Amino acid sequence: MPKRLPPGRSEAVSQEQQGWSFPANSKKAHYFLANEIRSLCMKWMYAGEREDSKDDSLDNCKDCIKRLAAMRKKQAKGVKP
Hints:
By secondary structure, the protein is of the alpha+beta class. It has one helix at about 60-75; strands at about 20, 30. A two-stranded antiparallel ribbon has the order 1-2. The chain is globular, with a radius of gyration of 13 Å.
């Protein structure tokens, strides 16, 4: 089943990159994987542009930071996420 996008969004919006973004009404930046519209913390949906840098920003969601670190640690060991 294809993923549903939020109203007003289209497939033309690039979801191919992963990174940090500020969803509407969010006070913190959240991390989104490539081709995913839900954040790592599972609290936000976003289909806009993402920036894969600034992992150490104070504006980043603490849950997303923890999950991203765990995911990267598993990848470094060779375990699929």
